[in-house]
Specification:
With 165 residues, the chain is of the alpha+beta class. The protein has helices at residues 19-33, 42-50, 105-119, 133-138, and strands spanning 10-13, 59-65, 68-76, 90-96, 124-129, 142-149, 152-160.
């Protein structure tokens, strides 16, 4: 069982982060997920995090404590999953920095992303994973198939919004 959240943090839109905070998160995102997206680098990732429509897509949120980024997640329109291009709303880039994992930060980020997406008109979300399917299963996501992201086979998962699971 994970430790309870023992830090004081806030969840904010990435568009309000400083350039150095964006670059910090972008560097960690590319280190974690860059193998899946060959053209992605930390400059592109930082630019993407700064793009936040305020409503609708894309949306990017970060967990922050005392100005220090702890984690980040996004909801985007396309996660480059072959055969699943028409799905529309994708939870992506769920990342908690290693030293903060196991404290519930990922859950807070995902729940807030779901809430914002729902308020923005999403009725469902999809995601892909190749390593943490069980975590998503425990939090109300269902596997719906397999997809390919730039040659990497991934489990595609789905969640209908508004359901209490």
């Amino acid at each position: 069982m994970a430790e309870p959240l023992d830090i004081v943090m806030k969840v904010i839109r990435c568009s309000s982060l400083s350039r150095s905070q964006l670059q910090f998160l972008a560097t960690h995102l590319v280190a974690e997920f860059g193998r899946l997206y060959p053209q992605w680098d930390s400059v592109i990732a930082a630019e993407e995090l700064a793009q936040d429509s305020g409503q609708g897509l894309p949306l990017h949120i970060a967990a922050i404590e005392d100005g220090r980024p702890l984690g980040v997640t996004s909801v985007i329109s396309d996660d480059e999953v072959t055969g699943w291009e028409s799905k529309g709303w994708w939870l992506a880039n769920v990342l908690v920095l290693p030293e903060y994992r196991g404290r519930g930060i990922g859950r807070v980020l995902v729940d807030r992303a779901i809430e914002i997406a729902s308020e923005s008109g999403a009725r469902e979300l999809h995601l892909v994973t190749d390593s943490v399917e069980n975590w998503y299963l425990m939090h109300g996501w269902e596997p719906v198939g397999v997809g390919e992201v730039h040659g990497n086979e991934m489990v595609v998962m789905h969640r209908v919004l508004g359901e209490n699971k």
